[in-house]
Specification:
heterodimer, A: 349 residues, alpha+beta, Rossmann fold, OB fold (Dihydrolipoamide Acetyltransferase, E2P), 3 domains, 6-stranded mixed sheet, 24% helix, 36% strand, B: 277 residues, mainly alpha, MetI-like fold, globular
């Protein structure tokens, strides 16, 4: 887990004046599952395509195994890609799709046969080698695409929103299976998605991106619990984001009230973003709560109820396992360490 | 009301077909006329077909037509397909400019193309006769090949080519093993179209053929001396050949759309099944 497999140094990509990537520095360690997460147009796919060799960076360097690959064409790089819409060759059957890369390497027949069968077994499609591509379901095509990329024994597998076209249940199954394959093979996965839940479930490291700029790099737990700015907080899970002022260390004012918090190191009276997760808000009686409000709506979500509660002119989103009726008066309270303070991000406005 | 409506529709199509095909049918019928004069029906005979295949001038012209058609359609297919692949990978703005440029000869009157080619050939001192005819046919065929290959390229996802590179294929290998099989139907129908257009052409050939007559120009020169029934027989054969080729093109392209339709149906069915599950 220590060696850097891929290094991006000052990578910038300019599409006719549109900055898709802005001076990206990032390293990817050998054997890790790294997810590039962000809304569409944040540059995550462009970054993947630069690593794969389909795009050339306008500025900056890409190192694989410490070697600058900026001028190495895609077909010579030791990475393989699972494409968003699978990109399986429709005129070849499952076997020949998986064997495509091996045939280029001029492997002998017995070796190709062994490898293809091994791959079919790995993705649990034993015996389907003779099938044509359009006889397969979406989930099966997905598996063939993974098998085809892994047959080349890459050092690093690049996955571009590979589960986007699958239905929810299949997607959950594939998430677990991808993680299993990655651990079994011990190779590096770079995974692109806009689905925060997918990122949280599978990754060792998450890179949150926005408008070509990295917002935060961290483990799923770090990213969820300690978002560095309001954008990350909002993108990873649901959040209540309020404007506040740090009047002194460990004390923040918002909605006209003062609260104890666990953050320090801000300037006196510095304006900040205050983020409170919906599940961290406790509902108590109106007299006891720091804030009191009225329940505007209640929706049953399965495990919890999602409520909109208006208090001090702000509509809080609250998740709770106990239900309050619409129109009820309730008190809101939160612990100091549930109040997350973030510097105002000018770029995020 | 409804019946009347349907009747009028049928009538309209009927009249249209009669106008289009009656002259050709008359010609084909008269090609089997034993009598030499047009207006007289002298009984059924295949005499003119026999005479046609004994006429050396006509056979020579037929040979020119066929060899020009075969060579020009093959060369135009090679050039047109390569051009289409290149144009497809251009940036959108350049692509549109180049496509408009290559499409221009299609809408340009043949007369203008013919005369300008004639000038170009004399300025470039291209040898008269067969060479000029062949070059002219290759030239006017290329845009049609591009036109029939481009849609196939557009249908083929660019990520197929990238996937091949990703798996270690050099660009030439990826093109041969992945892109070509996808666009092959477009290439074949482009080639057949080029062949029929070459057989069909008169105007451009007329300006570029001094010294090497093909069928269309030869028939024209015969017709000036009065209609010989052999011409009817020859025209009938040409009509049938061109018709057969056009049918073939249509069958190929409709098979493609059928395939695409079947695929879409299959996808829809799968989505429904997945939704039900």
């Amino acid at each position: 887990m220590s060696k850097h497999l891929i290094d991006l140094i000052g990578v910038t990509k300019d599409f006719d004046g549109e900055l898709a990537l802005n001076n990206i520095d990032l390293y990817i360690r050998n054997g890790e599952f790294l997810t590039l997460l962000g809304p569409s147009g944040c540059g995550k796919t462009t970054m993947l395509r630069i690593i794969a060799g389909f795009e050339t960076a306008t500025a900056g360097k890409v190192l694989i195994d410490g070697v600058d690959v900026s001028s190495v064409p895609a077909y010579k790089r030791k990475v393989n890609t699972v494409f968003q819409k699978y990109a399986l060759f429709p005129h070849l059957n499952v076997y020949d799709n998986i064997a495509f890369g091996l045939k280029i390497k001029k492997a002998d027949k017995a070796k190709i046969d062994r490898k293809v069968n091994e791959m079919l077994e790995m993705v649990e499609l034993q015996g389907l080698g003779k099938r044509s591509i359009d006889e397969l379901s979406g989930g099966q095509q997905q598996r063939v695409a993974i098998a085809r990329a892994l047959a080349n024994e890459p050092e690093c597998l690049l996955l571009d929103e590979p589960l986007g076209a699958l239905d929810l249940k299949l997607r959950k199954e594939m998430q677990i299976e991808l993680k299993r394959m990655q651990q079994q093979l011990g190779i590096t996965f770079i995974y692109v998605t806009h689905d925060q839940e997918e990122a949280l479930t599978m990754s060792d490291t998450i890179v949150v991106m926005r408008k070509g700029v990295i917002q935060q790099i961290g483990t799923p737990i770090d990213i969820y619990n300690e978002p560095q700015n309001a954008f990350v907080a909002d993108f990873i899970g649901e959040s209540n984001i309020l404007s506040g002022v740090m009047t002194e260390d460990y004390f923040v004012e918002f909605l006209g009230k003062g609260f104890n918090c666990v953050d320090k190191g801000f300037e006196r009276n510095e304006p900040v973003d205050v983020v409170i997760r919906p599940e961290d808000i406790k509902l108590i009686s109106p007299e006891e709560g720091t804030l009191s409000g009225i329940v505007k709506s209640t929706v049953f979500m399965g495990v919890h109820y999602e409520m909109q509660i208006e208090a001090a002119g702000f509509t809080f989103l609250v998740h709770s396992t106990s239900m309050e009726d619409e129109g009820a008066h309730v008190g809101l309270s939160f612990f100091p360490d549930d109040i997350h303070i973030m510097r105002k991000d000018k770029a995020a406005e | 009301m409804k019946r009347e409506h349907r009747f009028l529709k049928g009538l309209f199509i009927g009249i249209m077909l009669v106008f289009l095909y009656a002259p050709i049918i008359v010609m084909i019928v008269y090609s089997f006329n034993a009598s030499r004069t047009m207006g007289n029906w002298g009984g059924f005979s295949t005499e003119w077909y026999g005479a046609l295949f004994r006429d050396r001038d006509i056979l020579a012209a037929l040979e020119v037509t066929l060899s020009v058609a075969v060579i020009s359609s093959i060369v135009a297919t090679l050039l047109g397909t390569t051009a289409a692949i290149g144009i497809h990978s251009m940036k959108r703005r350049t692509r549109n400019v180049i496509l408009t440029t290559t499409n221009l000869p299609v809408v340009n009157p043949d007369l203008v193309t013919g005369i300008s080619l004639m000038f170009a050939f004399s300025i470039l001192m291209v040898p008269q006769g067969y060479t000029r005819l062949l070059l002219a046919h290759i030239t006017f065929n290329i845009p049609y090949v591009i036109l029939s290959v481009m849609p196939k390229l557009r249908q083929t996802s660019d990520s197929l080519y990238e996937a091949a590179l990703d798996l270690g294929a050099k660009p030439s290998y990826a093109l041969r093993k992945v892109v070509l099989p996808q666009i092959a139907p477009g290439i074949v129908s482009g080639m057949i179209l080029a062949f029929t257009l070459s057989v069909d052409d008169f105007v451009i050939s007329f300006f570029c053929q001094q010294g090497a007559q093909n069928l269309s120009t030869y028939i024209y020169s015969l017709a000036r001396r009065g209609i010989n029934p052999k011409i009817n027989a020859l025209s009938a054969i040409m009509f049938v050949v061109v018709l057969a080729l056009l049918l073939l093109v249509n069958v190929i392209s409709s098979q493609n759309t059928e395939e695409a339709k079947a695929k879409r149906r299959e996808k829809k069915r799968r989505r429904m099944a997945a939704a039900e599950a």
